[in-house]
Amino acid sequence: PWTSPSSTSTMEEAIHGAKREEEKVAFVFTVHGAIPYFTGALETLMQHTAPKPGQRFKVFVADDCEVQEESTALEEALKIVTWEWKVISMGMKRVGYTKSVNAGLKAAWGENFDILVTINSDVVFTPNWLEPLVAALKSSHDIGMSGPIGNAASYQSVPELYSTSGTWHKNPLPKGLIANDMSKLAFLVSKCNLISVPILNGFLMAIHRRALQEIGWMNEDLFPLGYGEENDFAFRLKAAGFRLVVNPMSYIYHHKTKSFSNQERMVLAKEAKQVIAQHMGAELANAERRLQSCKALSELREEFADHLKSMHQHSKTRFSVLFILNPMPKSLRFQMRGGWISVVQEALGLIHAGAQAQVAVQAWTKPAFEENFPEASKHGVFLGYQSTHTDQVVMELLQLRVAFDFLVATHHTTVPVVLKMGGIYPNSVKGYYVQDIEENFQYNRGTQAASTFSSLKDGFVFAKTRFLVHQLKNNYNVSAHLIPPTLDLALFSKGDAKLQRVNTKEGIMHICAMVRTLTARRNPLQTLEILSAIQKDLGSEKIQVSIFGSSTQEILRILRRKGKSVGLLQDITVLGPIDRQQVADLFDTCTFFLDFSAWQAFGRSGLEAMAMGCIPILPITGGVETYAEDGVNALLVNTTRIENGISAIKDLISGKYNLQEMRTSALLSSKKYNISESGQLTANLFQKFHEQWTATRQYECTTEVSIC
Length: 708
Description:
The protein has 25 helices and 23 strands. By secondary structure, it is of the alpha/beta class.
């Protein structure tokens, strides 16, 4: 009854792949009743299983139902299957599992299917369940059978093995979670290796054709009704030189006891126990001892249990992302940075698009972030870490026991954090949100900053301007994805009202600028010289000048250190460091905003000014071309000479440009970047990359095998 199928040259070609143009996968169900659960299994099969180019799928169903109504309902359920399907009737008298599954296997074998997946009818399929099992079978010629992990799969169960009564644990889904959440967690906590086992649970097994060619069918003489047939099959595979593996990337939920009641199972198990003891008792006992002490399975269960609590915050989301902001020692004064604002807004955009996103920040800065971003705080976006040292930051984040689909560095100092965390979570995408070319910054870390770009080049590198994308490709040979910028139009929202109240005759004009004395590339002295010249030339009756970003003391300190006259501050209002709301209020009162930086990777303040009806003067070098068009909604200047800045301001004041038209254009441009719409585009890019990454990992993670 379990002799090998007859061998022909055509069969040999199918086994070894010669002249093979497609990979054929058969899904072999055995149905003994419980049609609603079978219907549910088919629904999730169709939802989470799709043939790739070069694949052909077919469903084979061994109908072992005892009443005609159930058989009729079975065929009705199969109408949702969009591939080919075939029903093999076992008659109106129940013959049991082993004869039924053999009937399905024989039918699939006769149609030359390469991979035959035997499936209990009361399972729930999850995303990406099939490819890990297929990849395992393809990874080595001596792997004959592969299986998933699941909630009720004996030694393949997660997170618990035994119940308090000592029986197999059924691991019901925690409240609020679905099987798909378990699948996501299985992928994230698995360590990128197969687990070699002596036996597999029979609720779902993927069998390669070459294995059946060698050992034949399940043993229906010794185990006609089931309960022992999969162990016998496993031992015969081993005797023929094949290995069995579990791929922990594949998770299947099993309702259990739906086709057979608990009482029926107890009777069947009792009847099979004597046969098992006689034919494979010692071998089975040895196999169970190995599985009970299997380190790889034990660690997997521990990881699963540790991370399960955190899955509630990721449940039913498209994917999860952790952005990691750079450490900020307490010795430095806190000041909100444009790059940080971008990260938080990108996180909010992803949340609006149905993803889960969090931002790790230095713990002492967390209150300031929560105050500046109340909506993000409401969503629980911010996570705090204490240390400023890479290893300690990693340990703090790992102690959260949260597995993310994406781990994203946002600064060269957080790339090592992502790389180390990626070693613990090898199936998380390692990403880098490049905010600027930090090698150009004037500190002694240029080489370190440059090396971080290439260290994540095989991960998910992305930026929000073409300037940065081109810089990364041309200077570092790193290909980066382009995401759209975001703008908080709820905060920067008064531009339309400003258009209504500003007369065509402007009257006294108000110019503002950011002056950061600690950031050389922002050209703080040149900015002051331009503003002072304009103030002296036009006088306070025509122009008001305000600066923000640094205190009066900090500005005086740099003026003295550079030998400049403190008179540069005459008639200039120094606002010092101000928060985002104060920035918005300032832009609302200003006619022009000056950013005379050497370059801007993006220049968030320029876009925010535009949204408030304030015309920006921006550096021509960098990424401001993303939103700024010279002479239309902004002026772009070469910032190597202060005369260029002075001329630009005078041109705007003199009437050379229609300021009302420029404001109107600036407002229209700024509205393209609202957080929700940009977030949707970014989320689509993330999801597409993750799908490609997952497919790749399913094959990459079959090269190493842990042995139980």
